[in-house]
Write a structure and sequence with these properties.
Elements lengths: L7 H6 L19 H7 L3 H9 L17 H12 L3 E2 H4 L10 E3 L2 H4 L10 E3 L5 E2 L4 H11 L4 E2 L8 E8 L6 E3 L9 H16 L3 H22 L2 E5 L12 E5 L2 E7 L1 H9 L1 E6 L2 H24 L5 H38 L3 E7 L2 H12 L3 H4 L2 H11 L5 H15 L8 H4 L7 H24 L1
Parallel strand pairs: 5-12, 6-10
Antiparallel strand pairs: 1-2, 2-11, 3-4, 3-9, 6-12, 7-8, 8-11, 9-10
Helix pairs in contact: 2-11, 3-12, 4-11, 7-10, 8-9, 8-12, 9-11, 9-12, 13-18, 15-16, 16-18
Length: 451
């Protein structure tokens, strides 16, 4: 009986995929390892880890190979060493003993979470040269809001926003958001490329992708065991209202509300809460793992074939693109969620004044709802001196006239007896006084229309 010979092509097809030569195995071209290390930065990946702390199930959002392991490890090491006890951060806060805090600014310093502008208390006289990050968020949010243009003498526009803070705050505010669906993309890509490298016996690339997944994943597990918390000091009993003026130059915000809420804006701080120092120690150990990953990639990735190197670079590139998207999209989402969680939806009015004099007088008018302020000439004079020129005779006479009308509850309307002041010797001084009084009248008209 004749048995035909099995074709050689069929024998090749029966072989296992794992024993086949990987694609591009015959090429002599090799990727430069230094180019791979310097291709993508780590600041985006670092910020992604920090911003992910606001999400639920944040422990499982970081299991993918990512660029910049050295940068992440360096900042996590500093973060782990910035531990302070609960009593040092918030004395008498009532939180459980043994908890520790770390400053998230070490991770968020590249994302614009800077300190806020200066603050001047209307009733208390409190003066803060630097406010909290929530004040910075508030200023950035209201700078983009459109306002009503006020008629008057045009020099350089000044924006005035009146914000009524009505929400009662909790001693501490925690944040929980649903993570975006796109978070599974870099995880799926890293696992897929790692599996493909294993099937084609690209063990150098396989081990480096797997090491990247484990290093970042374990770090996110321990960082995710903490909570991002917003905390602020409680006002003392019997203290005056916390209303005040936030900002300088051409952006001014009048905060009106309970002192507890105003304190949250001006003095509130963000912290990472951990149940014990153990998690922080584990984060420091993970930072050494990230350092080891950065060194191992420089050594092992060039040892792989071109196909394995391409799989490694592809996993890194997808993670980098995801980090960029996360920062461009979720940074705004995170800020909006933090703002809503702490302050709710404050009522606001924004007016665009044509000059600074009208803007400052409007602040005094909108602040004068409380008779303790409108009837106190010293507080009125202090606010005006801090925001307007002082010392010149014309300015001092103008301030005195405006303050007298405010103290007596009179409308800011003036006639010849006010600007033709006997203490002003020259016509130019009288002309300037008349101009400043007209600015005050324009501010009063805007106040009457928007009160």
């Amino acid at each position: 009986m004749y048995i035909p010979e099995i074709p050689e092509a069929v024998q090749f097809q029966s072989r296992s995929l794992a024993t086949d030569s990987p694609p591009l195995s015959t090429t002599t071209f090799m990727l430069n390892s230094s180019g791979i290390a310097g291709l993508l930065g780590g600041e985006e990946a670092l910020s992604t880890v920090a911003l992910a702390q606001i999400y639920n199930r944040r422990k499982w959002l970081g299991w993918y190979n990512t660029p910049g392991s050295y940068t992440i490890g360096k900042h996590f090491r500093r973060l782990a060493r910035s531990v302070t006890s609960d009593s040092r951060v918030s004395p008498g806060s009532g939180t459980r003993s043994g908890m520790v805090h770390v400053d998230p600014a070490l991770l968020l310093q590249h994302d614009g979470w800077s300190s806020g502008p200066v603050f001047k208390g209307v009733y208390s006289g409190t003066s803060l040269h630097e406010t909290g990050p929530l004040a910075s968020l508030l200023m950035k949010k209201y700078t983009r809001v459109s306002g009503t243009i006020v008629d008057g003498r045009a020099t350089q526009p000044v924006n005035v926003t009146i914000v009524k803070l009505e929400q009662n705050l909790q001693p501490e505010t925690k944040f929980q958001l649903t993570p975006p669906l796109c978070a599974v993309i870099p995880i799926a890509v890293s696992l897929t490329t790692c599996t493909i490298c294993g099937l084609y016996c690209e063990w150098y690339a396989f081990s480096m992708i797997l090491l990247g997944i484990l290093a970042r994943g374990l770090t996110c597990v321990f960082i995710g065991s903490g909570e991002l918390v917003f905390d602020h000091p409680k006002p003392s009993e019997g203290s005056p209202p916390g209303d005040g003026i936030l900002g300088c130059d051409h952006e001014l915000v009048l905060l009106k509300g309970h002192e507890n809420v105003v304190n949250a804006v001006t003095r509130g701080r963000f912290f990472f809460h951990f149940r014990s120092k153990h998690a922080c120690h584990m984060v420091e150990l993970c930072s050494f793992l990230l350092f080891a990953q950065a060194i191992a990639q420089l050594i092992c990735v060039p040892q792989s074939n071109l196909f394995g190197q391409l799989m490694f670079v592809f996993s890194i590139a997808i993670s980098w693109v995801y980090n960029l998207w996360f920062l461009s999209y979720d940074k705004v989402e995170v800020r909006e969620e933090i703002f809503r969680s702490v302050l709710g939806s404050p009522k606001l009015k924004k007016l665009i004044f044509p000059n600074r004099c009208s803007a400052i007088v409007s602040l005094l008018l909108f602040s004068g709802d409380d008779k303790r302020f409108s009837g106190d000439p010293e507080k009125l004079k202090e606010i005006m001196d801090g925001l307007l020129p002082s010392g010149a005779l014309v300015w001092e006479i103008w301030k005195g006239i405006v303050i007298e009308h405010l103290r007596n509850g009179q409308p800011l309307r003036f006639d010849d007896t006010h600007w033709n002041h006997q203490d002003l010797p020259s016509d130019s001084d009288r002309s300037l006084l008349w101009t400043l009084l007209k600015d005050a009248e324009a501010a009063y008209a805007a106040f009457e229309s928007n009160r």
